[in-house]
Amino acid sequence: MANIVSTFKNIFRIQELRDRIVFTLLVLLAVRIGSFITIPGVDVNALTAASAAGGDANTIFGLYDMFVGGAFSNAAIFALGIMPYISASIILQIAGVAVPRLQKLQREGEEGRRTINQWTRILTVFIAMGQAWGVTVKIASTTVGAGGASVVPEAGFFWTISSVMILAAGTMTLMWLGEQITDRGIGNGISLIIFIGIIARFPTAISQELTLIGSGARNLVIDVILTLLLAGIIAAVILITQGARRIPVQYAKRVVGRKVYGGTTQYIPLRVNTAGVMPIIFAQSILFVPATFASFFPGNAFWQAVANVFSERSVWYALSYGLMILFFTYFYTAIAFNPKEVADNMKRNGGFIPGVRPGTATSEYIENILDRITLPGAIFLAIIAILPTFAMSVLQVPPLFASFFGGTSLLIIVGVCLDTLQQIESHLLMRHYDGFMKTGKIRGRANVTS
Asked: Is 138 among the domain residues?
Protein backbone atom coordinates (compact mmCIF):
# COMPACT_ATOMS: atom_id res chain seq x y z
CA MET A 1 0.00 0.00 0.00
CA ALA A 2 2.82 2.41 0.87
CA ASN A 3 4.39 1.68 -2.53
CA ILE A 4 1.13 2.56 -4.33
CA VAL A 5 0.75 5.83 -2.38
CA SER A 6 4.37 6.71 -3.15
CA THR A 7 3.81 5.96 -6.84
CA PHE A 8 0.80 8.27 -7.02
CA LYS A 9 2.87 11.02 -5.39
CA ASN A 10 5.59 10.46 -8.00
CA ILE A 11 3.03 10.76 -10.80
CA PHE A 12 2.10 14.29 -9.76
CA ARG A 13 5.77 15.28 -9.29
CA ILE A 14 6.37 14.85 -13.04
CA GLN A 15 4.86 17.87 -14.79
CA GLU A 16 4.59 16.27 -18.25
CA LEU A 17 2.86 13.18 -16.87
CA ARG A 18 0.58 15.31 -14.69
CA ASP A 19 -0.39 17.48 -17.70
CA ARG A 20 -1.07 14.39 -19.81
CA ILE A 21 -3.35 12.87 -17.16
CA VAL A 22 -5.28 16.15 -16.65
CA PHE A 23 -5.67 16.56 -20.44
CA THR A 24 -6.99 13.00 -20.75
CA LEU A 25 -9.50 13.49 -17.93
CA LEU A 26 -10.79 16.75 -19.46
CA VAL A 27 -11.28 15.13 -22.88
CA LEU A 28 -13.11 12.16 -21.34
CA LEU A 29 -15.32 14.61 -19.45
CA ALA A 30 -16.19 16.28 -22.76
CA VAL A 31 -17.04 12.85 -24.20
CA ARG A 32 -19.43 12.15 -21.32
CA ILE A 33 -21.08 15.57 -21.66
CA GLY A 34 -21.67 14.89 -25.37
CA SER A 35 -23.41 11.63 -24.43
CA PHE A 36 -26.24 13.62 -22.83
CA ILE A 37 -26.77 16.33 -25.50
CA THR A 38 -29.86 15.16 -27.39
CA ILE A 39 -30.23 15.54 -31.17
CA PRO A 40 -32.41 18.57 -32.08
CA GLY A 41 -36.04 17.66 -32.78
CA VAL A 42 -36.28 14.82 -30.24
CA ASP A 43 -38.84 15.06 -27.44
CA VAL A 44 -36.63 14.52 -24.36
CA ASN A 45 -39.54 13.66 -22.01
CA ALA A 46 -40.98 11.11 -24.42
CA LEU A 47 -37.51 9.66 -24.99
CA THR A 48 -36.96 9.28 -21.24
CA ALA A 49 -40.29 7.46 -20.91
CA ALA A 50 -39.44 5.17 -23.84
CA SER A 51 -35.98 4.39 -22.39
CA ALA A 52 -37.53 3.57 -19.01
CA ALA A 53 -39.77 1.02 -20.73
CA GLY A 54 -36.65 -0.80 -21.97
CA GLY A 55 -36.90 -3.53 -24.63
CA ASP A 56 -33.52 -3.13 -26.36
CA ALA A 57 -31.30 -4.66 -23.65
CA ASN A 58 -30.83 -8.02 -25.40
CA THR A 59 -30.61 -6.64 -28.94
CA ILE A 60 -27.79 -5.25 -31.06
CA PHE A 61 -28.98 -1.79 -30.00
CA GLY A 62 -28.42 -2.74 -26.36
CA LEU A 63 -24.90 -3.95 -27.17
CA TYR A 64 -24.23 -0.70 -29.04
CA ASP A 65 -25.58 1.36 -26.15
CA MET A 66 -23.16 -0.40 -23.79
CA PHE A 67 -20.15 0.71 -25.85
CA VAL A 68 -21.32 4.35 -26.06
CA GLY A 69 -22.20 4.68 -22.37
CA GLY A 70 -25.94 5.21 -22.81
CA ALA A 71 -25.58 7.83 -25.57
CA PHE A 72 -27.65 5.68 -27.95
CA SER A 73 -30.64 5.46 -25.58
CA ASN A 74 -30.27 9.21 -24.97
CA ALA A 75 -30.39 9.90 -28.75
CA ALA A 76 -27.30 12.04 -28.14
CA ILE A 77 -24.96 13.63 -30.66
CA PHE A 78 -22.40 10.94 -29.73
CA ALA A 79 -24.95 8.13 -30.14
CA LEU A 80 -22.76 6.31 -32.68
CA GLY A 81 -19.75 6.49 -30.40
CA ILE A 82 -16.42 5.44 -31.81
CA MET A 83 -17.76 2.15 -33.18
CA PRO A 84 -17.77 3.17 -36.91
CA TYR A 85 -14.03 3.81 -36.59
CA ILE A 86 -13.54 0.41 -34.91
CA SER A 87 -15.59 -1.23 -37.69
CA ALA A 88 -13.49 0.48 -40.38
CA SER A 89 -10.27 -0.65 -38.67
CA ILE A 90 -11.49 -4.26 -38.48
CA ILE A 91 -12.61 -4.24 -42.14
CA LEU A 92 -9.20 -3.02 -43.33
CA GLN A 93 -7.41 -5.44 -41.02
CA ILE A 94 -9.37 -8.40 -42.42
CA ALA A 95 -8.98 -7.08 -45.98
CA GLY A 96 -5.22 -6.93 -45.41
CA VAL A 97 -5.15 -10.74 -45.50
CA ALA A 98 -6.56 -10.90 -49.05
CA VAL A 99 -5.76 -7.56 -50.72
CA PRO A 100 -2.14 -7.36 -52.00
CA ARG A 101 -2.14 -3.53 -51.96
CA LEU A 102 -2.95 -3.47 -48.22
CA GLN A 103 -0.37 -6.19 -47.53
CA LYS A 104 2.27 -4.05 -49.25
CA LEU A 105 1.28 -0.97 -47.22
CA GLN A 106 1.49 -2.96 -43.97
CA ARG A 107 5.11 -3.81 -44.80
CA GLU A 108 6.09 -0.21 -45.64
CA GLY A 109 6.48 0.87 -42.02
CA GLU A 110 5.45 4.35 -40.89
CA GLU A 111 4.57 5.62 -44.37
CA GLY A 112 2.28 2.67 -45.05
CA ARG A 113 0.71 3.03 -41.61
CA ARG A 114 -0.15 6.67 -42.32
CA THR A 115 -1.79 5.71 -45.62
CA ILE A 116 -3.84 2.96 -43.93
CA ASN A 117 -4.89 5.39 -41.18
CA GLN A 118 -6.08 7.86 -43.82
CA TRP A 119 -8.09 5.15 -45.58
CA THR A 120 -9.55 4.15 -42.21
CA ARG A 121 -10.74 7.71 -41.58
CA ILE A 122 -12.37 7.92 -45.03
CA LEU A 123 -14.08 4.55 -44.56
CA THR A 124 -15.23 5.69 -41.11
CA VAL A 125 -17.12 8.61 -42.69
CA PHE A 126 -19.11 6.29 -44.99
CA ILE A 127 -19.82 3.75 -42.24
CA ALA A 128 -20.87 6.53 -39.85
CA MET A 129 -23.26 8.00 -42.46
CA GLY A 130 -24.87 4.58 -43.04
CA GLN A 131 -25.19 3.79 -39.34
CA ALA A 132 -26.46 7.32 -38.61
CA TRP A 133 -29.31 6.82 -41.09
CA GLY A 134 -30.20 3.54 -39.33
CA VAL A 135 -30.17 5.30 -35.95
CA THR A 136 -32.52 8.05 -37.20
CA VAL A 137 -34.94 5.37 -38.45
CA LYS A 138 -34.77 3.62 -35.07
CA ILE A 139 -35.32 6.88 -33.13
CA ALA A 140 -38.19 8.02 -35.37
CA SER A 141 -39.91 4.63 -34.99
CA THR A 142 -39.66 4.71 -31.18
CA THR A 143 -43.07 5.39 -29.66
CA VAL A 144 -44.35 5.96 -26.15
CA GLY A 145 -47.74 5.96 -24.45
CA ALA A 146 -51.03 4.33 -25.32
CA GLY A 147 -51.44 6.41 -28.44
CA GLY A 148 -48.05 5.39 -29.79
CA ALA A 149 -46.74 8.93 -30.16
CA SER A 150 -43.27 9.15 -31.72
CA VAL A 151 -40.39 10.62 -29.72
CA VAL A 152 -39.70 12.75 -32.82
CA PRO A 153 -42.79 14.93 -33.38
CA GLU A 154 -41.68 16.08 -36.84
CA ALA A 155 -39.54 13.31 -38.33
CA GLY A 156 -39.40 14.68 -41.84
CA PHE A 157 -36.73 14.70 -44.53
CA PHE A 158 -34.92 17.74 -43.14
CA TRP A 159 -34.75 16.23 -39.63
CA THR A 160 -33.36 12.96 -41.03
CA ILE A 161 -30.66 14.67 -43.12
CA SER A 162 -29.61 17.03 -40.32
CA SER A 163 -29.54 14.21 -37.75
CA VAL A 164 -27.41 12.01 -40.03
CA MET A 165 -24.92 14.87 -40.43
CA ILE A 166 -24.88 15.56 -36.67
CA LEU A 167 -24.36 11.90 -35.74
CA ALA A 168 -21.61 11.38 -38.35
CA ALA A 169 -19.90 14.60 -37.19
CA GLY A 170 -20.15 13.32 -33.61
CA THR A 171 -18.28 10.15 -34.56
CA MET A 172 -15.56 12.09 -36.38
CA THR A 173 -15.24 14.40 -33.36
CA LEU A 174 -14.79 11.39 -31.07
CA MET A 175 -12.19 9.96 -33.45
CA TRP A 176 -10.29 13.27 -33.36
CA LEU A 177 -10.55 13.44 -29.55
CA GLY A 178 -9.23 9.87 -29.31
CA GLU A 179 -6.23 10.78 -31.46
CA GLN A 180 -5.60 13.83 -29.28
CA ILE A 181 -5.55 11.64 -26.16
CA THR A 182 -3.09 9.26 -27.82
CA ASP A 183 -0.79 12.13 -28.87
CA ARG A 184 -1.10 14.55 -25.93
CA GLY A 185 -2.63 12.46 -23.15
CA ILE A 186 -1.99 9.09 -21.56
CA GLY A 187 -3.16 5.72 -22.88
CA ASN A 188 -4.81 4.75 -26.16
CA GLY A 189 -7.48 7.38 -26.88
CA ILE A 190 -9.90 5.17 -28.84
CA SER A 191 -9.80 2.46 -26.18
CA LEU A 192 -10.26 4.98 -23.36
CA ILE A 193 -13.39 6.45 -25.02
CA ILE A 194 -14.94 2.96 -25.13
CA PHE A 195 -13.71 2.31 -21.57
CA ILE A 196 -15.31 5.46 -20.13
CA GLY A 197 -18.62 4.57 -21.80
CA ILE A 198 -18.64 1.13 -20.18
CA ILE A 199 -17.41 2.19 -16.74
CA ALA A 200 -19.99 5.02 -16.62
CA ARG A 201 -22.67 2.38 -15.98
CA PHE A 202 -20.86 0.97 -12.93
CA PRO A 203 -22.21 3.51 -10.35
CA THR A 204 -25.77 2.69 -11.48
CA ALA A 205 -25.04 -1.04 -11.10
CA ILE A 206 -23.73 -0.49 -7.56
CA SER A 207 -26.79 1.65 -6.76
CA GLN A 208 -29.09 -1.18 -7.86
CA GLU A 209 -27.24 -3.63 -5.60
CA LEU A 210 -27.43 -1.27 -2.63
CA THR A 211 -31.16 -0.85 -3.25
CA LEU A 212 -31.61 -4.63 -3.13
CA ILE A 213 -29.70 -4.78 0.16
CA GLY A 214 -31.70 -1.89 1.62
CA SER A 215 -35.02 -3.49 0.66
CA GLY A 216 -34.02 -6.82 2.21
CA ALA A 217 -34.10 -8.66 -1.13
CA ARG A 218 -30.36 -9.35 -0.90
CA ASN A 219 -28.38 -10.54 2.12
CA LEU A 220 -25.25 -8.51 2.90
CA VAL A 221 -23.20 -11.70 3.30
CA ILE A 222 -24.22 -12.82 -0.19
CA ASP A 223 -23.13 -9.47 -1.56
CA VAL A 224 -19.71 -9.83 0.11
CA ILE A 225 -19.35 -13.27 -1.49
CA LEU A 226 -20.33 -11.79 -4.88
CA THR A 227 -17.70 -9.05 -4.44
CA LEU A 228 -15.00 -11.63 -3.66
CA LEU A 229 -16.12 -13.68 -6.68
CA LEU A 230 -15.88 -10.59 -8.90
CA ALA A 231 -12.37 -9.87 -7.55
CA GLY A 232 -11.32 -13.44 -8.36
CA ILE A 233 -12.71 -13.19 -11.90
CA ILE A 234 -10.85 -9.90 -12.48
CA ALA A 235 -7.60 -11.50 -11.23
CA ALA A 236 -8.11 -14.44 -13.63
CA VAL A 237 -8.77 -12.07 -16.56
CA ILE A 238 -5.57 -10.12 -15.76
CA LEU A 239 -3.62 -13.37 -15.59
CA ILE A 240 -4.86 -14.59 -18.98
CA THR A 241 -4.56 -11.12 -20.59
CA GLN A 242 -0.89 -10.92 -19.61
CA GLY A 243 -0.17 -14.62 -20.17
CA ALA A 244 2.23 -15.30 -23.02
CA ARG A 245 4.57 -18.03 -24.27
CA ARG A 246 8.01 -16.55 -25.00
CA ILE A 247 9.88 -18.13 -27.91
CA PRO A 248 13.66 -17.43 -27.84
CA VAL A 249 15.19 -16.02 -31.03
CA GLN A 250 18.97 -15.99 -31.50
CA TYR A 251 20.56 -13.48 -33.88
CA ALA A 252 23.87 -14.41 -35.47
CA LYS A 253 26.84 -12.07 -35.15
CA ARG A 254 27.65 -9.95 -38.18
CA VAL A 255 30.77 -7.82 -38.62
CA VAL A 256 30.20 -4.69 -40.71
CA GLY A 257 33.40 -2.62 -40.86
CA ARG A 258 34.52 -2.22 -37.27
CA LYS A 259 31.08 -2.81 -35.76
CA VAL A 260 29.60 -6.10 -34.60
CA TYR A 261 25.84 -6.58 -34.97
CA GLY A 262 23.65 -9.35 -33.56
CA GLY A 263 24.77 -12.08 -31.19
CA THR A 264 21.85 -11.38 -28.85
CA THR A 265 18.84 -13.40 -27.75
CA GLN A 266 15.38 -11.88 -27.99
CA TYR A 267 11.90 -13.32 -27.47
CA ILE A 268 8.67 -13.50 -29.47
CA PRO A 269 5.77 -13.26 -26.97
CA LEU A 270 2.82 -15.37 -28.17
CA ARG A 271 -0.20 -14.27 -26.15
CA VAL A 272 -2.64 -16.79 -24.75
CA ASN A 273 -5.41 -14.40 -25.78
CA THR A 274 -4.13 -12.96 -29.06
CA ALA A 275 -7.63 -12.24 -30.35
CA GLY A 276 -8.54 -10.03 -27.38
CA VAL A 277 -12.19 -9.13 -26.99
CA MET A 278 -13.13 -9.45 -30.68
CA PRO A 279 -14.44 -13.08 -30.59
CA ILE A 280 -16.97 -12.12 -27.89
CA ILE A 281 -18.11 -9.05 -29.85
CA PHE A 282 -18.55 -11.08 -33.06
CA ALA A 283 -20.42 -13.92 -31.33
CA GLN A 284 -22.61 -11.58 -29.30
CA SER A 285 -23.54 -9.53 -32.38
CA ILE A 286 -24.69 -12.67 -34.22
CA LEU A 287 -26.69 -14.05 -31.26
CA PHE A 288 -28.44 -10.71 -30.79
CA VAL A 289 -29.82 -10.83 -34.35
CA PRO A 290 -32.96 -12.91 -33.46
CA ALA A 291 -33.90 -10.56 -30.59
CA THR A 292 -33.25 -7.55 -32.84
CA PHE A 293 -35.59 -8.86 -35.56
CA ALA A 294 -38.16 -9.77 -32.91
CA SER A 295 -38.11 -6.14 -31.71
CA PHE A 296 -38.82 -4.98 -35.28
CA PHE A 297 -41.66 -7.51 -35.74
CA PRO A 298 -43.39 -7.85 -32.36
CA GLY A 299 -46.41 -9.57 -33.92
CA ASN A 300 -44.41 -12.21 -35.84
CA ALA A 301 -44.72 -15.57 -34.04
CA PHE A 302 -41.67 -17.08 -35.80
CA TRP A 303 -39.20 -14.38 -34.74
CA GLN A 304 -40.63 -14.29 -31.23
CA ALA A 305 -40.12 -18.07 -30.92
CA VAL A 306 -36.54 -17.84 -32.24
CA ALA A 307 -35.81 -14.97 -29.84
CA ASN A 308 -37.09 -17.07 -26.90
CA VAL A 309 -34.87 -20.01 -27.90
CA PHE A 310 -31.79 -17.76 -28.00
CA SER A 311 -32.64 -15.62 -24.97
CA GLU A 312 -29.75 -14.87 -22.62
CA ARG A 313 -30.97 -17.29 -19.95
CA SER A 314 -31.41 -20.31 -22.27
CA VAL A 315 -29.07 -23.32 -22.56
CA TRP A 316 -28.99 -22.98 -26.37
CA TYR A 317 -27.74 -19.42 -26.04
CA ALA A 318 -24.87 -20.46 -23.74
CA LEU A 319 -23.91 -23.45 -25.94
CA SER A 320 -24.03 -21.47 -29.21
CA TYR A 321 -22.20 -18.57 -27.58
CA GLY A 322 -19.33 -20.78 -26.38
CA LEU A 323 -18.90 -22.58 -29.74
CA MET A 324 -18.94 -19.31 -31.69
CA ILE A 325 -16.28 -17.83 -29.41
CA LEU A 326 -14.04 -20.87 -29.96
CA PHE A 327 -14.41 -20.46 -33.74
CA PHE A 328 -13.89 -16.68 -33.80
CA THR A 329 -10.88 -16.90 -31.48
CA TYR A 330 -9.01 -19.10 -33.96
CA PHE A 331 -10.35 -17.06 -36.90
CA TYR A 332 -9.24 -13.68 -35.53
CA THR A 333 -5.91 -15.04 -34.24
CA ALA A 334 -5.12 -16.23 -37.77
CA ILE A 335 -5.78 -12.68 -39.02
CA ALA A 336 -3.95 -10.83 -36.24
CA PHE A 337 -0.79 -12.98 -36.19
CA ASN A 338 0.93 -14.37 -39.30
CA PRO A 339 3.61 -16.99 -38.44
CA LYS A 340 4.94 -17.05 -42.02
CA GLU A 341 5.53 -13.29 -42.00
CA VAL A 342 7.28 -13.50 -38.61
CA ALA A 343 9.50 -16.36 -39.85
CA ASP A 344 10.40 -14.43 -43.02
CA ASN A 345 11.33 -11.32 -41.01
CA MET A 346 13.52 -13.40 -38.71
CA LYS A 347 15.28 -15.04 -41.66
CA ARG A 348 15.80 -11.66 -43.35
CA ASN A 349 17.45 -10.25 -40.20
CA GLY A 350 19.60 -13.29 -39.50
CA GLY A 351 17.50 -14.60 -36.62
CA PHE A 352 16.64 -18.21 -35.84
CA ILE A 353 14.97 -20.27 -33.12
CA PRO A 354 17.55 -22.61 -31.52
CA GLY A 355 17.06 -26.13 -32.85
CA VAL A 356 14.66 -25.07 -35.64
CA ARG A 357 15.59 -24.43 -39.26
CA PRO A 358 14.85 -20.93 -40.62
CA GLY A 359 12.01 -20.47 -43.10
CA THR A 360 9.13 -22.93 -43.41
CA ALA A 361 10.16 -25.04 -40.41
CA THR A 362 10.19 -21.94 -38.19
CA SER A 363 6.77 -20.90 -39.47
CA GLU A 364 5.32 -24.36 -38.72
CA TYR A 365 6.97 -24.40 -35.28
CA ILE A 366 5.44 -21.03 -34.33
CA GLU A 367 2.05 -22.02 -35.75
CA ASN A 368 1.98 -25.27 -33.73
CA ILE A 369 2.74 -23.42 -30.50
CA LEU A 370 0.14 -20.75 -31.34
CA ASP A 371 -2.52 -23.42 -31.95
CA ARG A 372 -1.77 -25.09 -28.60
CA ILE A 373 -1.91 -21.93 -26.49
CA THR A 374 -4.93 -20.51 -28.35
CA LEU A 375 -7.18 -23.41 -27.25
CA PRO A 376 -7.02 -22.67 -23.49
CA GLY A 377 -7.35 -18.97 -24.30
CA ALA A 378 -10.48 -19.64 -26.36
CA ILE A 379 -12.00 -21.84 -23.64
CA PHE A 380 -11.28 -19.15 -21.05
CA LEU A 381 -12.93 -16.51 -23.28
CA ALA A 382 -16.01 -18.73 -23.64
CA ILE A 383 -16.25 -19.15 -19.84
CA ILE A 384 -15.80 -15.41 -19.25
CA ALA A 385 -18.48 -14.63 -21.86
CA ILE A 386 -21.03 -16.96 -20.23
CA LEU A 387 -20.37 -15.77 -16.65
CA PRO A 388 -22.82 -12.81 -16.82
CA THR A 389 -25.59 -15.23 -17.85
CA PHE A 390 -24.62 -17.50 -14.94
CA ALA A 391 -24.65 -14.53 -12.55
CA MET A 392 -28.15 -13.51 -13.68
CA SER A 393 -29.71 -16.99 -13.77
CA VAL A 394 -28.10 -18.70 -10.77
CA LEU A 395 -26.92 -15.89 -8.47
CA GLN A 396 -29.92 -13.64 -9.26
CA VAL A 397 -27.67 -10.64 -9.93
CA PRO A 398 -29.35 -7.68 -11.73
CA PRO A 399 -28.45 -7.62 -15.48
CA LEU A 400 -26.47 -4.36 -15.29
CA PHE A 401 -24.27 -5.51 -12.42
CA ALA A 402 -23.97 -9.00 -13.94
CA SER A 403 -22.42 -7.52 -17.10
CA PHE A 404 -19.31 -6.67 -15.04
CA PHE A 405 -18.82 -10.32 -14.04
CA GLY A 406 -17.37 -11.11 -17.45
CA GLY A 407 -17.99 -10.70 -21.15
CA THR A 408 -17.03 -7.73 -23.26
CA SER A 409 -17.24 -5.16 -20.45
CA LEU A 410 -14.73 -6.81 -18.13
CA LEU A 411 -12.22 -7.68 -20.85
CA ILE A 412 -12.19 -4.13 -22.22
CA ILE A 413 -11.92 -2.59 -18.75
CA VAL A 414 -8.99 -4.84 -17.77
CA GLY A 415 -7.20 -4.43 -21.12
CA VAL A 416 -7.46 -0.63 -21.15
CA CYS A 417 -6.42 -0.32 -17.49
CA LEU A 418 -3.34 -2.48 -18.08
CA ASP A 419 -2.35 -0.50 -21.17
CA THR A 420 -2.76 2.86 -19.38
CA LEU A 421 -0.83 1.66 -16.32
CA GLN A 422 1.94 0.44 -18.62
CA GLN A 423 2.29 3.90 -20.16
CA ILE A 424 2.27 5.60 -16.75
CA GLU A 425 4.90 3.16 -15.51
CA SER A 426 7.06 3.87 -18.57
CA HIS A 427 7.02 7.60 -17.76
CA LEU A 428 7.96 6.88 -14.13
CA LEU A 429 10.80 4.48 -14.93
CA MET A 430 12.17 6.83 -17.59
CA ARG A 431 12.67 9.43 -14.86
CA HIS A 432 14.07 6.88 -12.39
CA TYR A 433 10.96 6.66 -10.19
CA ASP A 434 9.55 3.38 -8.92
CA GLY A 435 6.46 2.23 -10.84
CA PHE A 436 3.44 0.29 -9.62
CA MET A 437 5.48 -2.92 -9.78
CA LYS A 438 9.05 -2.99 -8.47
CA THR A 439 9.72 -6.30 -10.22
CA GLY A 440 8.59 -7.07 -13.71
CA LYS A 441 6.53 -4.90 -16.02
CA ILE A 442 2.86 -4.45 -16.67
CA ARG A 443 2.04 -5.68 -20.14
CA GLY A 444 -0.98 -3.93 -21.61
CA ARG A 445 -2.79 -4.25 -24.93
CA ALA A 446 -2.19 -1.73 -27.70
CA ASN A 447 -5.95 -1.30 -28.30
CA VAL A 448 -9.30 -3.16 -28.02
CA THR A 449 -9.16 -4.38 -31.54
CA SER A 450 -5.85 -6.19 -31.27
From this structure: yes
